[in-house]
Structures are given as structure tokens and as C-alpha cells.
């Protein structure tokens, strides 16, 4: 193999980075170059989302676009989205967790048993449920990372096993109701309108200010930094989206406002955004997060660099199952009860689909937590919109399957494109 | 003065296959020691044992005259031993800075300190007169072989290491890049570091090495002073496992 670097553009040694083009056109061209290089990120998912929303809005203008349905959609998608956020960590390793859905159901069941049957205090029952998730993840992680059993097989076994655990915990055809306002409120109630606006402002100002300060500091130290215009575009886009969403959710959406008022940002959205911020921070700002990417990208290189690959793998499985516990509680909260099918049926498959549709690679090493949120929204819009079109469930599943196939193809094609052009 | 690194009677087997049969090796600070040998002589196994990736089955491992236990890559790094592998061991999905600090990220308030890491990475690359990298934030996947080699060597130098082990650093490089890397190797030794250079290319070896250690089927044939020998003698030692008369140091 003959390799020479002489044919590559060699920058002037005094400035290691060529002066970036900071104009609007320059930013756009840089983005296009990235896309052509195969770094498509979440763009296909976002475009797909826009297309789906346009189609459903055209076909069912009354039902699809009203704010009641919008809030409903968030509640419907919350469980799958939270599950997908946890799965991103396992997918980043190039592994899979098929048991996450029923792990969530089992943890929701544990919550039901302790909260409703044993009448434990809320906090204790909640800790027990989350701990159950962590222990499930620990066992799966040990089997995968220590014994080296493929995660597909381990989690397939756990999928079957946990389904049984949930069924025997609750009993054939039974349910455990939740009678706790906090738990039931997680995926049913709304924030006061003023609080929604306040959090929106905190979000926007927080993002704009922290990124601006960080950029300014890097600029002062002469480090690589995004153009100010790009920062403004990102902050502006965030502002528009957040204000539009919060504004729409602050509209009265009750069919009979005199009887019950229904307005404000759903609590479930707050849970999703909160988890998104915390998990993204862990993945991008901590050494552990870097190690997750490293293990997913090249486990042998990570090992030689002295990274404890075993512990990184284990922690990702524990995190995934713990997030599954949160997801299970969100799903059960929606119906105020747990049944033997909580977290079953299509939940897990939708969640894996959501992460992949959002742009997380099944091959490991590439993905972000926000992929899960974008992909989860796509899946929810399909499910919700097809339902409004009075399509039979068969059609819904066929369409969802098709979308997932398209997303997986985009992933595979962009990888080929990326390796051909020398990107990731 | 005792050698920087000394191995005595080192042995290693993989199942029934004995790869190293009582190997002695010493590397002195400020000198480039070349490790040569034919394919299958055990060079890579020897290096992996030094780096703590494999454990030697038997033998003594001395560093700065003291017996040490190296059971994992962290132990080796703690002693100041850095290895640049033939396959470079870089993560394609991470950028240059993250690769250089892989496993040893600098932290501020327990968070990854990207700013300082990027500054230090660039200082190190500038110190090595590296002009081929467009940006230290480029993913390694998009770099050429020569650029990757540069990143890997820069990573080894970043840590004020005492001994740098280079496994076939010029194997995949063009003429100009080879020249640059060899100059870099010489500069490392001139700065007082011990350098162990594993190479097939005797041109490279005779250009930079101070002494030459020849491995033959898992045995150390001998460590020869480069100035007092010739290429023909080294080739003979590599192929026959016997140091010709008058060649031994």
C-alpha cells in the first residue's frame, strides 16, 4: 500500500486550520460537503418527519394538527423515546438489548407490587423499581462482557424470561393499578402554562449562553470553533422550535373547557427533555462518554489505551436497563396500571427502530441521544397518523416496517459512502 | 549505567507453540535500539509482553534497574513506556485530539477538558513539525496512513515517556514520510529517550539505530553495535540465527 500525504492540501504551517469560510454560503457548503461525505446524521429522519407531518396534515387536517392530538402524540411516544435513549448506549457499543421492553414492564410491575400491594412510600418503591432495572442490566452486562455470549442471544433469553417474570408477578389477565398521583401524573398531567414558558426560556437562554461563552473562550485561545453565524442559526432554530412547541401546547385543548381545562406542556415532555440533557452531557462531556465511543469504534484500541472495556460495556447495559425501567413506568403511567403486556408487543422494536431511524448506527461507534428523540417522534407520528386515517393495524405495521427499512438502508449506504470518502 | 529496560530469559507460549524461548534484551536511554528478525521470530509478541498486553510466562522484566511487574497497558504507561503499534490502535470514529488522549483524558471539574487537550495536542504536533494535518478535529478515519502514523507517534510523545517502542513505523509510508518519521525517531533518542524500533527495513535500521538486536525463532541471536557491523552480517544473523565472526558486540 503506498500512501502519500503530499497530494493532500497542506495548510500553511503558521495557521494549522485553513481560514474557514464564515459566510452563510460557506456554512451551507461545509454542511453539504459533510452530507456528501456520508455524515448524514439525523437529516433523513428530520426530512421524513416533515414529509409525514405534511401528508397527515393534508389528509386529516382537523384531527392530526389540533393541539389535543399533538399533546397526545407526545404522551404516546414518551415510553418508546425513553427506551430508545437507553438503547443508544448499547447500540453505540455495537450490541443490542432485545429485553429492554420487558425489563421496563417488569420494573413497572415491581413498582406496582410495592406501591399498590405493599403500600410502600413512593420514593422507596421507585428506588426498588429502578434498582430492578439496574440489576437486570448488570446480569445481562456480565453475561455479555465477561462471558462473551453475544448480546443478541443473552437479551433474547432475557426477553423471554422477563416476560414470564412479569406474567407471574401480575397473574394471567390481571392488572396492578397505580393509585399514586405523582406516578400517574408523569405521563398524563400538564405543567402550569407559566412554568412551561419559564422552562422554555431557561432552555433557550441556557443553550445560547453556554454555547456562546464556550465558543468565545475557544476563539480567544485560537482553537477550532464554529462560526458565530452557525451558532446564531442553531440558537435561532432552537428558539423557534421550542417557542412553537410550547406555544401550541399552551393553547386550551379540552373539548369542553368549562368542565376541565387541558393546557400546558405535558410532564412527559419535561421528562424526555430532562433525560436528553443529562444523558447527552454524560456522553459528550465525561471521559466515560468518550470511552463508550472508543469501545464502539475500536474495542482493541480502547483496550490498548488502558480503558477498562469490560466496565464500559457493563455500565452501558446497566444504564440501558435502568432507562428501560423509567420507560416502563412512563408506559404504565399512561394507563395508570401495569398488565402482563406492559413493555411488550411492539414497544422494544419501535424503540430500536426509533434509535436507528434517528441516525444511531447498528454497527456501533456512531450515535447521539437526540437521535432517539427524533426517531421516537417519527415512529409516534406514523402510529398516530395511520390511526387517524382509520388504517387497520396491519397497514400501520407495514408502513412502520418500511420506514425502518429505509432508515437502515440510509445508515448502511452512508457508511459505505463514508468509508469511500474516508469519513466515519 | 544500567539499561533503561532490560529483559532476561523471557519466555512466552501460546498453547503448544512456544514463541519466545529465553530472550534477553536491553534498551538504553538516548539510544535507538533496532529489533530485527524474520516473520514469526517473535518480535510482536515480545513487544506486546513489554506493553503488558500479554504476560510473559517466565523471565525478568527490569526497568531502570528495578524489577517491575507489568500486567496491563496501564502499568507500562505508568513506567513511561509507550508503544506505537503497527496497526496504530486508533479509533476511526474519534478525532485526532480524542485519539491522542484516549484513555487519559485531561479533566477539569471532573469533565473532559477539550480546550486544554486541543491546545496540548497542537503544541505536540507543532513540536514534531507536523504540517500535514489540516485540523486536529478531523476524524482519524479521514486521514492517510502517514497522517495516522504521525498521530500515533505524537500520542506516544505526548506523555513525556521514557521509552518509545515503534512497531514497523515506516512500513506503509512513502519516501518523504519515511524520512520524516526516521528523523523524528532520531530526535526522540537525542532528547534522552530510549527508543526500540522494530523494522524489516535494514535501510531504516542502519540509518537511525545505535545497536541492533536480532531475534531468530524466539531466541535472541545477539545485540550488535550498529557501527561495528555490516548489513550482510545482520542479514546472515536474521536468516541463520548465528552471528557471524567478528560481528558480536
TrEMBL record, chain A:
InterPro entries linked to this entry: ABC_transp_permease
Transmembrane segments: 40-59, 71-93, 100-116, 122-145, 152-171, 191-216, 228-251, 263-283, 312-332, 347-365, 372-389, 395-413
Subcellular location: Cell membrane
Keyword Acyltransferase annotated: no
Gene Ontology MF: a single term: transmembrane transporter activity
UniProt keyword terms in alphabetical order: Cell inner membrane, Cell membrane, Membrane, Sugar transport, Transmembrane, Transmembrane helix, Transport
Region annotation (Disordered) ranges: 1-22
Entry keyword annotation includes Transferase: no
Residue ranges, compositional bias (Basic and acidic residues): 1-10
Membrane topology type: Multi-pass membrane protein
GO CC list: plasma membrane
Functional description taken from the UniProt entry: Part of the binding-protein-dependent transport system for D-xylose. Probably responsible for the translocation of the substrate across the membrane.
Protein name, UniProt field: Xylose transport system permease protein XylH
Organism: Nocardioides luteus
Species lineage: Bacteria, Bacillati, Actinomycetota, Actinomycetes, Propionibacteriales
Automatic annotation (TrEMBL), chain B:
The ABC transporter domain, residue ranges: 5-242
Keyword DNA repair: no
Pfam families (UniProt xref): ABC_tran
UniProt xrefs under SUPFAM superfamilies: P-loop containing nucleoside triphosphate hydrolases (SSF52540)
Domain of life of the native organism: Bacteria
Keywords, in A-Z order: ATP-binding, Nucleotide-binding
InterPro entries according to UniProt: AAA+_ATPase (IPR003593), ABC_carbohydrate_import_ATPase (IPR050107), ABC_transporter-like_ATP-bd (IPR003439), P-loop_NTPase (IPR027417)
Name of the protein in its database record: Sugar ABC transporter ATP-binding protein
Amino acid at each position: 500500500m503506498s500512501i502519500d500525504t503530499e497530494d493532500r492540501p497542506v495548510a500553511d504551517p503558521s495557521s494549522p486550520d485553513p481560514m474557514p469560510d464564515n459566510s452563510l454560503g460557506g456554512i451551507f457548503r461545509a454542511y453539504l460537503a459533510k452530507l456528501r461525505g456520508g455524515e448524514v446524521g439525523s437529516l433523513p429522519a428530520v426530512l421524513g418527519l416533515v414529509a409525514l407531518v405534511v401528508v397527515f396534515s393534508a389528509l386529516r387536517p382537523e384531527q392530526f394538527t389540533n393541539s389535543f392530538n399533538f399533546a397526545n402524540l407526545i404522551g404516546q411516544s414518551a415510553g418508546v423515546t425513553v427506551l430508545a435513549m437507553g438503547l443508544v448506549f448499547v447500540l453505540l457499543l455495537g450490541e443490542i438489548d432485545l429485553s429492554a421492553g420487558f425489563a421496563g414492564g417488569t420494573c413497572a410491575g415491581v413498582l406496582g407490587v410495592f406501591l399498590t400491594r405493599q403500600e410502600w412510600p413512593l420514593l422507596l418503591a421507585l428506588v426498588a423499581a429502578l434498582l430492578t432495572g439496574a440489576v437486570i442490566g448488570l446480569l445481562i452486562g456480565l453475561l455479555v462482557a465477561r462471558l462473551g455470549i453475544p448480546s443478541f442471544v443473552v437479551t433474547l433469553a432475557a426477553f423471554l424470561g422477563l416476560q414470564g417474570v412479569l406474567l407471574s408477578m401480575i397473574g394471567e389477565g390481571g392488572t396492578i393499578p397505580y393509585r399514586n398521583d405523582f406516578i400517574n401524573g408523569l405521563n398524563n398531567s400538564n405543567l402550569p402554562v407559566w412554568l412551561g414558558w419559564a422552562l422554555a426560556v431557561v432552555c433557550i437562554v441556557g443553550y445560547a449562553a453556554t454555547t456562546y461563552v464556550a465558543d468565545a473562550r475557544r476563539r480567544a485561545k485560537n482553537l477550532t470553533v464554529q462560526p458565530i453565524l452557525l451558532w446564531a442559526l442553531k440558537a435561532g432554530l432552537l428558539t423557534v422550535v421550542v417557542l412553537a412547541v410550547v406555544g401550541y401546547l399552551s393553547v386550551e385543548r379540552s373539548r369542553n373547557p368549562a368542565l376541565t381545562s387541558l393546557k400546558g406542556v405535558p410532564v412527559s415532555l419535561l421528562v424526555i427533555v430532562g433525560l436528553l440533557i443529562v444523558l447527552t452531557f454524560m456522553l459528550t462531556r465525561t471521559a466515560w462518554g468518550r470511552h463508550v465511543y472508543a469501545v464502539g469504534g475500536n474495542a482493541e484500541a480502547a483496550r490498548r489505551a488502558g480503558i477498562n472495556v469490560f466496565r464500559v460495556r457493563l455500565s452501558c447495559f446497566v444504564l440501558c436497563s435502568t432507562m428501560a425501567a423509567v420507560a416502563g413506568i412512563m408506559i404504565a403511567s399512561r394507563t395508570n396500571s401495569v398488565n402482563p403486556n406492559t413493555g411488550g408487543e411492539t414497544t422494544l422494536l419501535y424503540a430500536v427502530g426509533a434509535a436507528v431511524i434517528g441516525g444511531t448506527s447498528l454497527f456501533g461507534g456512531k450515535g447521539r441521544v437526540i437521535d432517539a428523540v427524533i426517531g421516537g417522534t417519527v415512529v409516534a407520528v406514523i402510529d398516530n397518523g395511520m390511526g387517524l386515517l382509520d388504517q387497520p393495524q396491519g397497514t400501520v405495521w407495514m408502513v412502520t416496517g418500511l420506514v425502518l427499512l429505509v432508515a437502515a438502508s440510509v445508515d448502511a449506504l452512508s457508511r459505505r459512502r463514508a468509508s469511500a470518502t474516508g469519513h466515519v | 549505567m544500567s539499561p533503561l529496560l532490560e529483559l532476561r530469559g523471557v519466555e512466552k507460549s501460546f498453547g503448544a507453540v512456544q514463541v519466545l524461548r529465553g530472550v534477553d534484551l536491553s534498551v538504553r536511554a538516548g539510544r535507538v535500539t533496532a529489533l530485527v528478525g524474520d516473520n514469526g521470530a517473535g518480535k510482536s509478541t515480545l513487544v506486546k509482553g513489554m506493553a503488558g498486553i500479554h504476560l510473559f510466562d517466565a523471565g525478568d522484566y527490569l526497568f531502570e534497574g528495578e524489577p517491575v511487574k507489568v500486567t496491563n497497558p496501564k502499568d507500562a504507561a505508568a513506567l513511561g513506556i509507550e508503544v506505537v503499534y503497527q496497526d496504530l490502535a486508533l479509533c476511526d470514529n474519534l478525532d485526532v485530539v480524542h485519539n491522542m488522549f484516549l484513555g487519559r483524558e485531561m479533566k477539569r471539574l471532573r469533565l473532559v477538558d477539550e480546550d486544554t487537550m486541543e491546545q496540548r495536542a497542537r503544541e505536540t504536533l507543532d513540536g514534531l513539525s507536523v504540517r500535514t494535518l489540516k485540523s486536529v478535529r478531523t476524524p482519524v478515519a479521514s486521514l492517510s496512513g502517514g497522517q495516522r502514523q504521525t498521530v500515533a507517534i505524537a500520542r506516544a510523545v505526548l506523555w513525556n515517556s521514557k521509552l518509545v517502542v515503534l512497531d514497523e513505523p515506516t512500513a506503509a509510508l512513502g519516501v518523504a514520510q519515511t524520512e520524516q518519521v526516521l528523523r523524528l525517531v532520531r530526535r526522540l533518542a537525542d532528547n534522552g529517550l530510549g527508543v526500540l524500533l522494530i523494522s524489516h527495513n535494514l535501510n531504516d535500521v542502519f540509518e537511525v539505530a545505535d545497536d541492533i538486536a536480532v531475534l531468530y525463532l524466539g531466541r535472541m541471536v545477539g545485540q550488535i553495535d550498529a557501527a561495528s557491523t555490516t548489513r550482510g552480517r545482520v542479514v546472515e544473523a536474521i536468516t541463520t540465527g548465528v552471528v557471524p565472526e567478528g560481528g558480536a558486540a
